[in-house]
Amino acid sequence: AAQIWYENDGDLSVLEGKKVAIIGYGSQGHAHALNLRDSGVDVVVGLRPTSKSVEHAKEQGLEVKSVPEAAAEADVIMILAPDQYQRNIWKNDIEPNIKPGAAVAFAHGFNIHYGYIKPSEDHPVFMVAPKGPGHIVRREYVNGRGVPVVVAVEQDPRGDAWALTLAYAKALGALRAGAIKTTFKEETETDLFGEQNVLMGGVNKLVEMGFEVLTDAGYQPEIAYFEVCHELKMIVDLMNEGGMNKDRWSCSDTAQYGDYTNTCIDEHVRERMQYHLKRIQDGSFAKEFIEDQDAGAPKFKALQEEYSNVRIETVGPKLRAMFSWNNGKDEDADMATFN
Ligand code: NDP
Ligand code: MG
Ligand code: MG
After folding, report:
1. Which of 152, 217, 294, 300: CA 20 to 30 A from 288?
2. Burial bucket for residue 74 (CB in 10 Å: 0-12, 13-18, 19+)
3. Run of H or E residues at 78
4. In contact, 192 and 160? CB cutoff 8 Å
């Protein structure tokens, strides 16, 4: 069985007298910096001086420095910039300044697993990867709860890497929910697989296609939106609580029969999932993504543009604006920064 750690398994005193640098102040960065600070950890945020997040972080009472300065004084450096920029930040700003023996930490195994970042042997390397978006990591902490994490150690030169990892996870609030032991390889490959095939690439395309089939057949977009998008959350909530047996239990026999006999997700889909898993395992997905990013992300940007204009996305905001319970929720996300 997988090893799982909880609140009593982490010792915050391991971080006493240590400085933790959080590099980046985006989705994960702001949550890690604020949660650790509120847990009594000495935190410094490392940002480019031009970043618009400098003011946000300072307003929250956090100490902010340039990345080289923050890296130079830290005993633990958690790298929370986007994955595709991390290796350049490491090479230019962190590696030349890092203290001997300082720990290097990640919230996703990508750069270590695919070999884009290779800290020298004297640095402990660990991962505390929240299995939820950064804004929920912060919201749960404030509410006295936590988002579960998966944790891993890649390098342990002194024998204290696991103690550091669990102390960090505890300060993040994650041990309130639980930390599951994994490896950088397992986390990276399963995280990419899940987001590509189910959570994002699977669900987003299912919803989009379902909406198009219904509206093409002449049904009202408001009704179609409800049936294939809005209700999804309620089904997922039930699944989250009690698995598929619970969402099936709560739905009608008619819905269940249609579910069991539906043929959309068939063996062809399994083969496509296995194909995408292979591309994750052999590194070709990572290579394609990083090469495009290095070229200025032409393919990525074109895809962002294309997918932000699919039919359900152009009518979705108008529909949600009509739903009184949803007022203002679109603005939670700073959509101006999305494209
Ligand atoms: P974001 O895109 O939200 O983070 C952007 C932050 O990185 C900004 O503060 C940005 O500052 C900073 N940044 C970008 N480039 C640089 C640079 N060259 N030097 C210094 N800072 C820079 O990232 P996420 O929080 O989404 O992801 C961070 C890590 O967490 C990734 O490894 C990701 O895989 C992982 N993760 C993310 C999850 C999520 O919820 N999003 C969930 C679990 C793991 P600026 O204003 O200067 O651009
Ligand atoms: Mg991911
Ligand atoms: Mg229905």
Report:
1. 152
2. buried
3. strand 76-79
4. no
> What does DSSP assign to residue 18?
-
Q: Pick from 136, 152, 142, 150: which is nearest to 191 by CA?
A: 150
Which of 152, 182, 212 is the last residue in one of the domains?
182
Q: Label residue 225 by pLDDT band (50, 70, 90).
A: very high
**108 in active site:** yes
> pTM of the entire structure?
0.92
Domain membership of residue 312 as a residue range: 192-337
How many helices (H) and strands (E) the chain has is answered by 16, 9
> Residue 75: left (phi > 0), alpha (psi -120 to 50), or beta?
alpha
Number of C-beta neighbours around residue 330 at 10 A: 12
Q: Is residue 199 part of a domain?
A: yes
Q: 69 CB contacts (<8 Å, ≥6 apart)?
A: 46, 97
Asked whether 124 and 160 are in contact (CB, 8 A), the reply is yes
Q: Does pLDDT of 166 surpass 90?
A: yes
Residues flanking ligand 1, CB < 6 Å: 23-29, 47-48, 51-53, 67, 80-83, 85, 89, 107-108, 129-130, 133-134
Residues 134 and 88 in one domain: yes
Pick the catalytic residue: 32, 108, 113, 123?
A: 108
Q: How far is CA 103 from CA 141, 156, 190, 237, 289, in A?
A: 24, 9, 24, 37, 27
Tokens encoding 125: 């390397």
pLDDT above 80 for 75: yes
What does 161-179 look like in DSSP terms, one character per residue? HHHHHHHHHHHTTGGGT-E
Answer yes or no: are the C-beta atoms of 53 and 81 closer than 8 Å: no
**ipTM score here?**
0.97
Of 168, 70, 153, nearest in space to 119 by CA: 153
